[in-house]
Amino acid sequence: MNADPRGRRIAVVADSLLEQLMPELRDQDYGNIQLPPAGLSPELAAEWLEQVAEHVQEFVRTGYCVVLADDGACGAALAPLALPQYAIQPPSTSRFVPET
What we know:
The chain is of the alpha/beta class and 100 residues long. 37% of the residues lie in helices and 15% in strands. The chain has a three-stranded parallel beta sheet with strand order 2-1-3, sandwiched between helices. The chain starts with 8 loop residues before the first strand and ends in a 22-residue tail after the last helix.
């Protein structure tokens, strides 16, 4: 049986941030749960968030570290879970060369 490559870490990620954060999360051995995309009906988004909350509660119950990378669209719905905010790393400036 193989070890879980996620390192028992899960990031709950806003749809708008998922593509940007995937390489960083993968490099840090996080699994992820996607939050609902914009444009869903309120009913469907609520059902999606209910499922996310159930999954998160189970991960937390079983000892996983769970963090939130939110764009502000769904964070209020997940506030009762009191997830710590994932610290998004700023882009590196080492590639920029000042004009001379």
